[in-house]
Amino acid sequence: MRILVTGHDGQVAQALAEQAQGHELVFTAYPEFDLSKPETIEAAVARIQPELIVSAAAYTAVDKAESEPELAMAINGDGPGVLARAGAEIGAPIIHLSTDYVFDGSLDRPWREEDPTGPLGVYGATKLAGEQAVQASGATHAVLRLAWVYSPFGNNFVKTMLRLAETRDALNVVEDQRGCPGSALDIATAILTVVEHWQREGATSGLYHFTGSGETTWADFARAIFAESAKHGGPTAEVTGIPTSGYPTPAKRPANSRLDCTRFAETFGYRAPAWQESLAVVVDRLFAAGRPA
Ligand SMILES: NC(=O)C1=CN([C@@H]2O[C@H](COP(=O)(O)OP(=O)(O)OC[C@H]3O[C@@H](n4cnc5c(N)ncnc54)[C@H](OP(=O)(O)O)[C@@H]3O)[C@@H](O)[C@H]2O)C=CC1
Ligand SMILES: Cc1cn([C@H]2C[C@H](O)[C@@H](COP(=O)(O)OP(=O)(O)O[C@H]3O[C@@H](C)C(=O)[C@@H](O)[C@H]3O)O2)c(=O)[nH]c1=O
Ligand SMILES: [Mg+2]
């Protein structure tokens, strides 16, 4: 199947490129394809004539978004709606990626798809607008909310921790934000599972959560990263858990980012491995590739 994937160097886009044997992936990349310029989106869809669209590109700089709200809204809020409408015109369903940051983090259990949203920052608000634009587009859609994405590619928390540990022996990391990291390698598997399910049974619209299994805090995630790094003789640092107030950032982040992934597992028959297992796979790959960060 011919699949248009937005973004080329993004974590999820690169993981898809590795795994999508049997499909023809066509990547659209900035600046020729610019989610803040509707005409470039429409031109890409008209040229590629995809049978399905994976909407993976986004403005993902959470703190920077606080000072660029219009640009973040154009890219995350408006662009996906233009893309989905262009797809709808040629009958292409869309898999659109969203985030745990659409929630305010106040609940004391993992968030379900229908729980009330309430983004704390600009990034989350713009991603919520993007979900709603896709849902209103007329396209058949799966909106997949992810969280804490990491991979051997691009920028992410795992690579940041390994890089910082090269020059520091101790790091302060917040321990009052809970969530579950999602490996882009597992996310690519999940996306292709949706594609194949739709090929067999026809596409239907829905909203889903997908992360690794289990839960952790950023501090314990960092400790696990260094434990894996140590197995390879890589850089490590002592992690001191601190409250969010001890690591001031422009954007507020949810205290509870845990997502309940039951609906995805029941609908598509795939659940990600325990986050610790997926982390080991990614750290192994980083070391196999040479320098970890
Ligand atoms: N990273 C995370 O922790 C999480 C991500 N998500 C969501 O998952 C999806 C995939 O994330 P991930 O793979 O990590 O993203 P990345 O940040 O790795 O990649 C984002 C991609 O979007 C592209 N992009 C940025 N601005 C534009 C623009 N104006 N027009 C077109 N493309 C643009 C980037 O291109 P360039 O490099 O050229 O700027 C890059 O290829 C996103 O929708 C994100 O919101 C959800 C939860 C967590
Ligand atoms: C680097 C560093 C971060 N932190 C904290 C800040 C933050 O609360 C947490 C994670 O840092 P990051 O900068 O990776 O977080 P952030 O960029 O907010 O990550 C988010 O990205 C977007 C795109 C999403 O959609 C979310 O799911 C989530 O993955 O760790 C420390 O406490 N110490 C440190 O040394
Ligand atoms: Mg060190």
UniProtKB/TrEMBL annotation:
Its cofactor is Mg(2+). One of its GO terms (molecular function) is dTDP-4-dehydrorhamnose reductase activity. It comes from the Bacteria. Gene3D superfamilies: NAD(P)-binding Rossmann-like Domain, UDP-galactose 4-epimerase, domain 1. Residues 1-286 form the RmlD-like substrate binding domain. Pathway: Carbohydrate biosynthesis; dTDP-L-rhamnose biosynthesis. Its EC number is 1.1.1.133. It catalyses: dTDP-beta-L-rhamnose + NADP(+) = dTDP-4-dehydro-beta-L-rhamnose + NADPH + H(+). It is an enzyme of class 1 (oxidoreductase). Keywords: NADP, Oxidoreductase. Pfam families: RmlD_sub_bind (PF04321). Binds 1 Mg(2+) ion per monomer. One of its GO terms (biological process) is dTDP-rhamnose biosynthetic process. InterPro entries: dTDP_dehydrorham_reduct, NAD(P)-bd_dom_sf, RmlD-like-bd. Belongs to the dTDP-4-dehydrorhamnose reductase family. NCBIfam families: rmlD. Catalyzes the reduction of dTDP-6-deoxy-L-lyxo-4-hexulose to yield dTDP-L-rhamnose. This is dTDP-4-dehydrorhamnose reductase. It comes from Sphingomonas trueperi.
